[in-house]
Amino acid sequence: MLLVLCVDLDDDLGRKTGIPTPVIGADDVTEAAVALATADPEDSDVNVLFQGVNVHDELAAEGEAVEVAAVTGVDGPDVKANRAVGQEVDRVLAELSTGEEVSAVVITDGAQDESVLPVIRSRMPIDGMRRVVVRQAQDLESLYYTIKQVLADPETRGTILIPLGVLLLIYPLVVVANLFDVAGAAVLGILSGAVGLYSLFRGLGLEDTVDGTAESVRNVLYTGRVTLVTYVVALALVVVGGVQGVDTVDVVRTAQGSPLAAGTALAAFVHGFVQWLGVAGVTSSLGQITDEYLAGRFRWRYLNAPFYVAAIAVVLFAVSGFFLPNAPGVTALGLSELAMALAAGTLIGVLSTLAFAVAESQLPSAEPV
After folding, report:
1. CB of 237 within 8 A of CB of 289?
2. Which of 64, 81, 260, 306 falls between 20 and 30 A from 25, CA-CA?
3. Tell me, what's the pLDDT at 369?
4. What are the backbone angles phi and psi of residue 5, rounded to the nearest 5°?
């Protein structure tokens, strides 16, 4: 048996005429179409109902076992409307119950109503689908529905409307800037730069990275982690170290009285910078260790980190000092002093590794969560 199914997803028929749905049978569907046309002659669902009756009559004239029915959804979200249509289709099938396999020809008035096709297909085969539109408005509703769906999607809306809005604001903002004696070219440059950065941001797909970073920062703030403070202190120490490294380069250049070679300049910068870098590394690692302890994930081997940082700082400080001349604020080292510094750095790393390995094997520590 073939069922001609007229779909009214937003329930114009029920809302405007008060006729209970589903409507089954050619005569009842015709009466429903007349009632809807009387209530709202401009409603496109009128055409759907009449088209359904027309298809029914054509197939019946050919001797086809056919029935026509009109089902409606609700005036709300697509999911609720689709579920309502599915329930009404179940009621239609229950009332037909001829014992024959039922297949459907679906009649709709546009792309929005066609979103219910998977719901109908899950209940019976679909032999055909016909979209009914006014000839003068071919594809108008589909275009409207497509634009509506695009603007309803937050990601697409942001991608399209934000750059468009900035571009539309360029001229009025330049005019306002000129009124206040601000260079319009500067405003134009700022706005075009903002659009360019936004385009690169979207094109490179950095939104997930930024969202993840923001979420991590929020978690750090809300959980009161010590690393938040120690990282800020470490960053300040690195900045100070960079300044100190540049100053050391200037001091060595002044003491030598001639331009520095690239290797000497690098050694001077490292010599002034590495002390602050070492303190920053020890500070941040101590903060991380404290957080691990408070979270119950402390392991003795974590204590190696500040000792490793200190050992590396000692080695770099000594090596850079070996290549520098005597100057104010510079610790120039000889070969024997360099050897002692290298040995000290090695011993710090080795002894800390051995000590905390023994401690971890002999003393209990928190199991990782």
Report:
1. no
2. 81
3. 41
4. -110, 115
Helix/strand/coil for 4:
strand
Any idea of the CA torsion for 101, 105, 111, 114, to the nearest 10 degrees?
Answer: -10
The whole-angstrom separation of Cα 203 and Cα 159 is: 10
Would you state the pLDDT for residue 237? Answer: 93
Strand partners, 23: 70
Q: What's the pLDDT tens digit per position in 278-290?
A: 999 999 988 888 8
Could you tell me how far CA 301 lies from the centroid of its own chain? 37
Longest Cα separation, the chain = 111
Contact 87, 119 (CB under 8 A): no
Counting as low any pLDDT under 50, the low residues of the chain are 368-369
Please state the domain extents for the chain: 2-143, 155-205, 224-362
- Dihedral (CA of 170, 171, 174, 179) sign: negative
Residue whose token pair is 């979207």: 202
Which pTM value belongs to this model? 0.43
For residue 3, what pLDDT is reported?
92
